[in-house]
């Protein structure tokens, strides 16, 4: 498998247990007040190297992109004050085109003929020396601020433009935000950013960059209840559900529901509930499950 030249975003459940403990990351929803967010454009990841005398666009695995000379020209114009001082920068972003499927964008991105309809949506910026070293200790918010200064005047139809950024606490529930973006079309979720994190080439399992994709919903039968831990000791921690490969668990209930169902499990055991999740793992567990409600209108659950 080709090596990634970017700092790879991973889903919440792929962050290492050590990183979650060190950062105090308990669940996806709790990140809303700590992490900023960006739209996850559904295109092809690109690395735009902008030097005074040369501009190169690479794929995330290092292949030279030959269809986007117009993007290289636009980058030279946008960064001309920086280039005039002899400096070189690297823009990280997504090659994208509004109203087109990702498969069509990918085809244009990889061809050797010009594809002038493609745009470059820049979401981060490094100095060339940082990119070549594979490390930037500057916080993401500082890097994005520098990018914003250069591209803040760009228009949504411009060849090179700025990716939107939402400050912590402004975009609501991370999963809900991702689902909203996917429903708009052109996005395949959201990206959460630790504003204080640096940039490291390779895996992002330390929790600096987290991708949130849209959820699926499942109607599952409740077969039991589990006591909670920490602040939920003495009340309901999770519902036990029948999944495709055995029992799975789900949380996300209100405090009132937790107390009521822990005191009287018969009120919920046997019911069919709707659960939103990012699908199932290979072992059959739900990925990032959230309780949505009881399905009183259903007689048969999934996987029965």
From TrEMBL:
It comes from the Bacteria. CDD domains: OBF_kDNA_ligase_like. Keywords: DNA damage, DNA repair, DNA replication, Ligase. GO terms for biological process: DNA repair; DNA replication. The keyword DNA repair applies. One of its GO terms (molecular function) is ligase activity. Residues 227-295 form the DNA ligase OB-like domain. This is Putative ATP-dependent DNA ligase from phage. It comes from Ralstonia solanacearum. The lineage of its organism: Bacteria, Pseudomonadati, Pseudomonadota, Betaproteobacteria, Burkholderiales.
């Amino acid at each position: 498998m080709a090596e990634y030249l970017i700092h790879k975003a991973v889903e919440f459940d792929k962050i290492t247990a050590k990183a979650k403990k060190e950062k105090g990351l308990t669940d996806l929803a709790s990140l809303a007040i700590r992490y900023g967010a960006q739209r996850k454009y559904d295109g092809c990841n690109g690395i735009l190297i902008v030097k005074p005398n040369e501009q190169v666009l690479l794929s995330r695995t290092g292949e030279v992109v030959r269809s986007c000379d117009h993007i290289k020209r636009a980058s030279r114009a946008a960064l001309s004050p920086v280039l005039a001082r002899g400096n070189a920068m690297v823009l990280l972003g997504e090659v994208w085109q509004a109203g087109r499927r990702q498969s069509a964008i990918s085809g244009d991105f990889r061809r050797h003929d010009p594809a002038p309809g493609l745009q470059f949506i820049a979401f981060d910026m490094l100095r060339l020396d940082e990119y070549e070293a594979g490390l930037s200790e500057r916080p993401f918010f500082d890097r994005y601020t520098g990018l914003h200064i250069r591209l803040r005047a760009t228009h949504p139809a411009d060849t090179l433009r700025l990716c939107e950024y939402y400050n912590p606490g402004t975009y609501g529930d991370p999963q809900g935000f991702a689902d909203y973006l996917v429903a708009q079309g052109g996005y395949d979720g959201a990206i959460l950013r630790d504003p204080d994190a640096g940039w490291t080439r390779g895996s992002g399992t330390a929790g600096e960059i987290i991708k949130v994709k849209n959820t699926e919903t499942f109607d599952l039968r409740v077969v039991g209840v589990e006591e909670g831990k920490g602040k939920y000791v003495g009340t309901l921690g999770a519902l036990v559900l029948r999944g495709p490969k055995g029992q799975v668990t789900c949380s996300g209930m209100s405090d009132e529901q937790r107390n009521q169902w822990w005191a009287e499990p018969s009120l919920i055991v046997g019911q069919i509930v709707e659960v939103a999740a990012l699908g199932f793992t290979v072992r059959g567990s739900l990925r990032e499950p959230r309780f949505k409600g009881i399905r009183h209108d259903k007689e048969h659950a999934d996987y029965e």
